[in-house]
Design a protein that fits this description.
eight-stranded parallel β-barrel; about 500 residues
């Protein structure tokens, strides 16, 4: 398969360690990297929304309590052992590598690898070791991500906090356990080149907590850095901002020269303005940056957002690899017959143990990657390789003369406002939303959410993609007033008259 310069594949290399250098990442041989990965959410830290659960069964503790109530204590133990053994296997890793990714981000719940007294739990470490072995075979790096720190770093269900508060910053005992945990991880994996780096805390201190404990977060990051460096001088250290990793106000100095700053991005306009603060921090501190979690959206948004990152040399990780009955992950687990009864049991249960056991056994079987519904269109959108659909508003982010030549302004505040291209609602005045990018289930855009680009004769837009035949492209809304031609980074749509484009559809491309 041929690749344009903007989309070269970059497989993992385990000769030496990934390092930060001149605000970019390089591998052990000094080759510059642009990371492309997926997050293994739900495996070591289950999240209720991935199971279709609601309040009462959202955190790992709550989900475990539900399985104990439905299956009995012994049955629940058997289920979880099977889940840990089978939700992610070497077959998943093989598929991830074959799909064109170069790393995985592993969300870890501290309860799986650390006992209440701080002692390492070998069964949890065995899961990490198995993953590293599979990734060595299939040439993927592994980013270790502490998703659920002792006591909780977010105070929400996603960190498995015992009392829905960020008690990591409230109780000294939890802080000590977190320092011990990262010391143990660094000591164990200090010489392991398959490990990409250490992602210290996932999305610490969201909402009101971001201001209350900002100083404590900085102090903890510095202390964690010191502890890790006492054991491991070579691995990359990854720091996330507060408030879902979007508030970078804490990054005022360099704590470690071999470090990476991580942001997350969901449900917002995929344009340069939305990431300017991250770009500014990269330039100011001279550290590489990384979009470590984003997804849960339409093919159109995914294509545009992930091309945006790559236009600015920002590596990325898509969230998540698979979950139940979804359009927004590469692999969708079919909900087993009767799953609605399990979901309803989050509030109350009339299920007998044998029937609940049958349903959970079917879930485990359906979760095997070869039994999942595979959605190649989503992978194509992420990688920009023969994408099924490109929105007109997904033109390149490299500026006038590079990604477009047009005269106009966006008529919608907050969406590509800085680009000189005329963007507007396809159907104005029909209840147009403040934010049209909140399709968390990947549903098609409603009529009142659709956007169009208006061009005049001679204007053009470039769309970055690999292996797209211009002759196969249909310009929706402007077939008679445009032509499609090849460009250095993909394809270019040139207006031959006044044209209002809504999307580009590729003939013969993959579907969901």
């Amino acid at each position: 398969m041929s690749h344009s310069p903007a989309f070269r594949p970059r497989p993992a290399s385990f000769v030496g360690f990934v390092q930060a250098r001149n605000a970019r990442l390089v591998d052990g041989s000094g080759r510059e990297l642009l990371l492309r990965g997926v997050g293994l959410g739900n495996w070591m830290l289950p999240e209720g929304y991935m199971w279709k659960f609601g309040p009462g069964a959202e955190s790992p503790r709550e989900i475990e309590a539900l399985t104990s109530r439905l299956l009995g204590e012994a049955g629940a133990r058997r289920f979880w052992q099977s889940f840990y053994d089978g939700f992610i296997t070497e077959a998943d890793i093989s598929r991830i590598a074959a799909s064109g990714f170069d790393h995985v981000r592993l969300p870890i719940n501290s309860r799986l690898i650390q006992a209440p007294d701080g002692t390492p739990i070998e069964s949890g470490y065995a899961m990490i070791d198995r993953l590293i072995g599979w990734c060595r075979t299939h040439r993927l790096w592994v980013l270790l991500d502490l998703h659920g720190a002792p006591g909780g770093q977010t105070g929400t269900n996603i960190d498995d906090s015992p009392r829905n508060k960020p008690e990591l910053f409230m109780e000294e005992s939890y802080r000590a356990l977190t320092l011990r945990l990262w010391r143990d991880l660094a000591r164990r994996y200090a010489d392991e080149t398959v490990v990409l780096g250490y992602d210290l805390l996932n999305e610490p201190l969201p909402n009101e907590w971001q201001n209350i404990y900002a100083a404590e977060l900085v102090d903890l990051y510095k202390d964690l850095t010191s502890v890790i460096r006492e054991e491991d001088a070579r691995h990359l250290i990854v720091y996330e901002g507060s408030h879902w990793a979007t508030n970078w106000s804490i990054f005022t100095e360099v704590w470690d020269e071999n470090s990476l700053l991580q942001f997350h991005k969901y449900w917002s306009s995929p344009d340069t303005e939305s990431i300017e603060k991250f770009l500014e921090t990269r330039d100011r501190l001279g550290l590489p940056i990384y979009m470590g979690e984003g997804g849960e959206n339409t093919l159109e948004w995914l294509y545009t957002a992930f091309r945006l990152y790559e236009s600015y040399d920002i590596g990325w990780n898509f969230w998540p690899w698979k979950k139940i009955d979804t359009r927004t992950s590469p692999a969708s687990i079919a909900a087993p017959h009767g799953w609605d009864q399990i979901v309803a049991a989050g509030a109350d249960s009339t299920l007998e143990v044998p029937e609940a056991s049958r349903i959970f056994d079917d879930l485990l079987r359906n979760a095997q990657i070869d039994n999942c519904v595979w959605q190649p269109g989503l992978v194509a959108a992420l990688l920009g390789e023969r994408p099924r659909v490109i929105p007109a508003w997904g033109f390149g982010a490299r500026g006038a003369g590079e990604s477009y030549s047009a005269a106009g302004v966006s008529l919608i505040p907050g969406i590509r406002s800085a680009d000189g291209v005329a963007l507007s609602w396809a159907n104005p005045g029909t209840g147009n939303p403040d934010n049209p990018f909140q399709q968390t289930d990947g549903r098609p855009y409603a009529l009142h959410e659709e956007l169009v680009i208006t061009l005049q004769a001679g204007d053009w837009l470039e769309f970055e993609a690999v292996d797209v035949d211009p002759a196969s492209v249909r310009v929706v809304g402007a077939e008679a007033a445009t032509r499609v031609e090849s460009s250095p980074r993909g394809i270019r749509v040139v207006a031959t008259g006044n044209a209002a484009l809504s999307s580009l559809v590729m003939g013969g491309a993959g579907t969901w």
